[in-house]
């Protein structure tokens, strides 16, 4: 089941963080960079986030989530997280499908991911995202900007 998450609530923010840390540790090892900013998030930071969070729940357990913000008329995906214990169950695809149908409301959608994160890059391409740019926010980390235009 997919639903909006009330991340400003302590318990929900703690659940998001508990899922986010192990997932980003996997990405950090994939891309060879352990300085991913979301690895340093706290419950308080999530509670104060101005992102919109949607979660994928199985029997009441949060297994994955997507967060986004509106930026310059586009919907910008900030986090797409699936708990490592639930990899390869199609959760990320279900979250993206829901987001594109229910949340992005005809806007262009943008996202960045690690250049070495082939699973994420392939997933976004499967949904029609095109790679626009590659950049290095700091030495040792290459990111790819992808965009899906709404036609």
CATH H level: which superfamily? Gcn5-related N-acetyltransferase (GNAT)
- Uncertain stretches of 5 or more adjacent residues: none
Shape: globular
| Order of helical and strand elements | EHHEEEHEHEE
Number of strands: 7
Task: Report the radius of gyration as a whole number of Å.
Answer: 15 Å
State the CATH architecture. Answer: 3-Layer(aba) Sandwich
**How many domains comprise the coordinates?**
1
- Report on the biggest sheet: 7 strands, mixed
Q: Strands of the biggest beta sheet: in what spatial order?
A: 1-2-3-4-5-7-6
What would the average pLDDT be, to the nearest integer? Answer: 92
Share of residues in helices: 25-40%
Under the CATH scheme, which class? Alpha Beta
CATH topology grouping: Aminopeptidase
User: Roughly what fraction of the amino acids lie in strands?
Assistant: 35-45%
Pfam family, one: Acetyltransf_1
Domain N-acetyltransferase: 3-151
GO molecular function: acyltransferase activity, transferring groups other than amino-acyl groups
Protein name: N-acetyltransferase domain-containing protein
Task: Explain what the structure shows.
The chain is of the alpha+beta class. It has four helices and seven strands. The protein has helices spanning 10-31, 43-47, 91-103, 118-126, and strands spanning 2-4, 52-58, 61-71, 74-82, 109-114, 130-138, 141-148. Strands 1-2-3-4-5-7-6 form a seven-stranded mixed sheet. It is globular and about 35 Å long.
